Structures are given as C-alpha cells and as structure tokens.
Amino acid sequence: MDKKRIVVALGRNSFGETFPEQQENVKKAAAAIADLVEEKYQIVITHSNGPQVGMIQTAMTEFARLNPDDRTVAPMSVCGAMSEGYIGYDLQNAIREELLNRGIYKTVSTIITQVRVDPFDAAFSEPSKIIGRFMSKKEAEAEEEKGNHVVEEEPGKFRRIIAAPLPIDIYEIDAVKALLDADQIVIAAGGGGIPVLQQGTHLKGASAIIEKDYTAAKLAELVNAQTLLFLTAYDNLTIEKGTPNEKVFEQVSASDLHTYIKAGHFPAKTTFPKVDASIRFVTADSERKAVISNLDKAKSSLAGKTGTTITA
C-alpha cells in the first residue's frame, strides 16, 4: 500500500449552484489540493455533483418539453456524464493554475468514469434520491406512467426520486492507476460516477445516482490508497451539536462509530454515507485511515492536528 497515495472527496461546498459561483469556489479546493501536492501525495479527486446534475436534468427535461417532436428527455446517466465533464473542466483548470502559480507543473486530467452497479440492488425498489425541478400533479402522473418514481415533497409539488445503488467496480480504474503511476493528478468518478449495468460487452446507463462517498471508498480501495479524505464545510465529525451532550470526534475507531450509528446519531442523507464509507474502507485493512475535515484545513487534518481521523 502506498502511504503517499490519497483519494480526496470534495463536498458540495467546493462548488456552488451557479456557473460563476462554482468557478470562484473551486479556487479554494485547488489551494487545498496544491497543499497536498507540495506534501508529495499522489492524488485522485472525486466530488459531489448534487446541485449540478439536478440543474442539468431539469434543463434537459425542459428542452425536451419545448421540442416534443424530435427530442427525448436525457437519461440520468447522460446527465451524470455532463456533470462530470463540466465540473472536471472547472476543477482541473483551477488546480493547474494554482500549481503553476506555485511553480509546480503537473498534468491534471478528468476521466469520465463509469461505475458498475448491481441490477438487483435493493435500492432500485426503494429509491431515495430526490432530483430535478418541481412538477405538477399531472406531470408527476405522466412520470409514473413512464415507470419513474415521484414523491410529493410539498403539497401539490412533486419531484422525481431515483435509486442510489452501491458501487461494485470502476471500469476506467486502469486509466486512473496509469495516470497516478505517472505522478499526475486525476479527477474521477465525479458525483459517484455514472451508474451502469453490464449486459455482455455493453454498458447500459442506469436510472440512478451513486452516493459519492461510497464510490470514493471504492476508488481508494482500487488504487491501493492508504488515506481517504473527505473535505466538507465543517471541521470535525460531531454529534448532538449545540446540546449539553455535544461530542466532537478527533480520533475514533470504526467499532466506536458503529455504536453511535446504532444509536441513530448520523443523519441518513448527509453524514451517514461518509461515516459508513469510512468504516468500510478502514476495516478492510488496518493500515488505512479515513479523515473528515474542513476544506480549508486539509493539510493539517492529514497530520492529525485538525479534523476527525477514523481507523480500524
């Protein structure tokens, strides 16, 4: 296992919900990555795409609605690919610029990444990820007629809800490894990757979104990284925040985290995937560690000075 190989998972605070906001926010992410380059890490970056893929799906749906004769709605797999491309474009350029400003030349590449999922994953019968724009009841009924799932998020306002299966394998992993071995920076599996179903030699895009935290752990496993770093908007993993029972974790074992999970401390839609993915990653190999930290404190968190370090 390479002690200087790391997978960095960037949260949505590294981007934004508009084009100008994203271009500004990625500068902070680029500075954090450049700090790790200076520490001689080999780096694979993955990232959130929640607002972006929702925006793309909404735009493509509206485009199809305005051109019903010759346009069909873009599948979620296509929307995911679009988000990987445009987020990667902003991120790799920001990192390149930051490195050059520090006198470092290193190629940064974005790989459009397909991730294998199981067609029998229970998530397909229990969809949990809300995406896209609000719809009327009539529009929601039309979606259900197509076989899609919808949920009434507010009275009279409906949105699509899709599956979030677990990642099984990453098809472009050999390309990621080759670039890492060449000491280049790789951006891969953005938004959890494009979920695909293997049908013989054909890869069919699935109507799903993969939770990026689980893909980050799978990516770290497959590239033989020792460290999985989640960069977020908060400094530490914390439970019961703002109460007399508040607990801030600095060093914590996977077995202790299991106890807190059973007690229901980590919200299913936000913190739990990071915690669960971290546990899966570190328990598979005692030399591994996972770190959850603020984006602005990436370097110090790897030294154990800030953030939360999770070990087996």
Explain what you see.
It is a single chain. By secondary structure, the protein is α/β, with parallel strands linked by helices. Helix content is 38%, strand content 27%. The chain has helices at 19-38, 50-66, 76-101, 137-145, 173-181, 212-222, 254-262, 271-283, 298-302; strands at residues 2-10, 42-47, 108-111, 114-116, 129-135, 149-154, 157-162, 169-170, 185-188, 194-199, 202-205, 225-232, 237-239, 247-249, 251-253, 289-294, 308-311. The protein has an 8-stranded mixed sheet, sandwiched between helices. Helix 6 (212-222) runs parallel beside helix 8 and helix 7 (254-262) packs antiparallel against helix 8. The chain is globular, with a radius of gyration of 20 Å. The model has no long low-confidence stretch (mean pLDDT 91). Belongs to the carbamate kinase family. InterPro entries: AceGlu_kinase-like_sf, Asp/Glu/Uridylate_kinase, Carb_kinase. GO terms for molecular function: carbamate kinase activity. Pathway: Metabolic intermediate metabolism; carbamoyl phosphate degradation; CO(2) and NH(3) from carbamoyl phosphate: step 1/1.
> Into which percent range does the helicity of residues fall?
25-40%
- Determine Rg (CA atoms, Å): 20 Å
What's the CATH architecture name? Answer: 3-Layer(aba) Sandwich
End-to-end separation:
16 Å
CATH fold description: Carbamate kinase
Order of helices and strands: EHEHHEEEHEEEHEEEHEEEEHHEHE
**Biggest sheet features:** 8 strands, mixed
Q: Tell me the structural class.
A: alpha/beta
